[in-house]
Every structure is written in structure tokens, then in C-alpha cells.
Inverse folding.
């Protein structure tokens, strides 16, 4: 039995993340999705709470055969102990997945196997592109699973990101 760990901020969970989960499913029996920066929300870069991101992930993967667990991981001031912090919050895992250079470095230094994945349609499947479209009224819905559209509707996420974006630009 192999269990993987996939870390990301998932702000929001988009079709690139879902494709990555499908790719990882070829390697592992179970997957932990670590919701990074779990303590952050209500900003343009991190608009959604950890709870909202858990809903997005759980509902998007409901039809998947893979056993998945979504675990919130708060940020720490000290990179040197971040991997231990991750391990203290997550079910045990055998291999980690990320394309983030700092994350890759920290897992390598801790002696944990880390695998990268190909980028899927990265020209548009990027969190910052989805958030920009949410703010400007573009087509963001086609970039995310249907379940994410429903969670954003249910939680008033669109009004929220537009409001925090407005207050950011008023401060600048
Ligand atoms: N289109 C994609 N295809 C494959 N992997 C992706 C894609 N987009 C993001 N990832 C990977 O998923 C992980 C989590 O990414 P993250 O939550 O930061 O999303 P992001 O799209 O890079 O968002 P942001 O623009 O907010 O930084 C990272 O390792 C990232 O490289
Ligand atoms: N010291 C720390 O708290 C620390 C170090 C490395 C990564 N992280 C987090 O891991 C996540 C990585 O996800 P992304 O690949 O989406 O950037 C982010 O939430 C990031 O803040 C935190």
C-alpha cells in the first residue's frame, strides 16, 4: 500500500490540480492533499478558508476511486521545521508531490522522496489566472471542477474576492 502527499494552496482547486491528482492516482493507493497556508484567507492571493478548500477538494474528487484525505497545514515562520510540522498533521505518507522549488528542497533535505508532475495547460490552469478572472468578471468557471463553482456560489466567494481586491487597490 502506497500513500502519497500532495501539497498546494488550492486557491481555488482548479482543473490542473485535478489532472495532477489523476496522474498521481497511477502511482499510489491513497493520497493526502495538504492544504497549505491553511491559516490564510480573505486576501487576493488566498481568498478561501481552509474549510472552503476542503469542501472544494472533497466534492471535486467524490467520484474518484482513490482514497483521499484533505488536511489543513498552517504556515510556520521556520522553514527548517516545516516538514516535521507537515508530518505531525498528516497521515503517514511514502512519497510527496510538488513542483514548488522550496517544498522540493525541504522534503529532499528531510530524506523524503519527492516527485514532480508535468504541468497541464499551464497557460490558463493557474490559481492566479482563475482569481484574476473572478475579480474582472471573466470566464473562471471553465477552469475549475463544477463542484468548485458550487462551493464558490454557496460561500459568496466571488463577492468576497472582489471586495478584498477593491480594498487592496484603495490602500495602494
Ligand atoms: N496546471 C497545472 N498542472 C499541474 N500541476 C499544477 C498546475 N497548476 C498548479 N500545479 C501544481 O500544484 C501544486 C499546488 O499549486 P498551487 O495551489 O500553488 O496552484 P497554482 O495554480 O500554482 O496557484 P497560484 O497561481 O495561486 O500560485 C504546485 O506544485 C503546482 O506546481
Ligand atoms: N515555512 C512554511 O510555512 C512553509 C515552507 C514551505 C512551503 N509552505 C507552504 O506550502 C504550500 C506550497 O504550496 P504551493 O506549491 O501552492 O505554493 C504553501 O501553502 C506554502 O506556504 C510553507
Amino acid at each position: 500500500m502506497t500513500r502519497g502527499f500532495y501539497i498546494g494552496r488550492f486557491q481555488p482547486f482548479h482543473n490542473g490540480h485535478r489532472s495532477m491528482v489523476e496522474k498521481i492516482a497511477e502511482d499510489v493507493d491513497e493520497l493526502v492533499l495538504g492544504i497549505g497556508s491553511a491559516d490564510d484567507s480573505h486576501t487576493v492571493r488566498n481568498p478561501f478558508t481552509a474549510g472552503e478548500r476542503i469542501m472544494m477538494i472533497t466534492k471535486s474528487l467524490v467520484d474518484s476511486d482513490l482514497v483521499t484525505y484533505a488536511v489543513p497545514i498552517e504556515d510556520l515562520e521556520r522553514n527548517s521545521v516545516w516538514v516535521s510540522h507537515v508530518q505531525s498533521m498528516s497521515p503517514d505518507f511514502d512519497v510527496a508531490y510538488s513542483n514548488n522549488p522550496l517544498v522540493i528542497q525541504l522534503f529532499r533535505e528531510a530524506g523524503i522522496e519527492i516527485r514532480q508532475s508535468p504541468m497541464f495547460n499551464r497557460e490558463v490552469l493557474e490559481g492566479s489566472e482563475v482569481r484574476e478572472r473572478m475579480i474582472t468578471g471573466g470566464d473562471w468557471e471553465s477552469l475549475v471542477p463544477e463542484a468548485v463553482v458550487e462551493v464558490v456560489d454557496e460561500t459568496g466567494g466571488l463577492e468576497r474576492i472582489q471586495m478584498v481586491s477593491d480594498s487592496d487597490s484603495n490602500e495602494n
Observations:
- Residues 14 and 144 are 4 Å apart (CA to CA).
- The chain has one domain: 3-171.
- Residues 157-171 form the longest helix (15 residues).
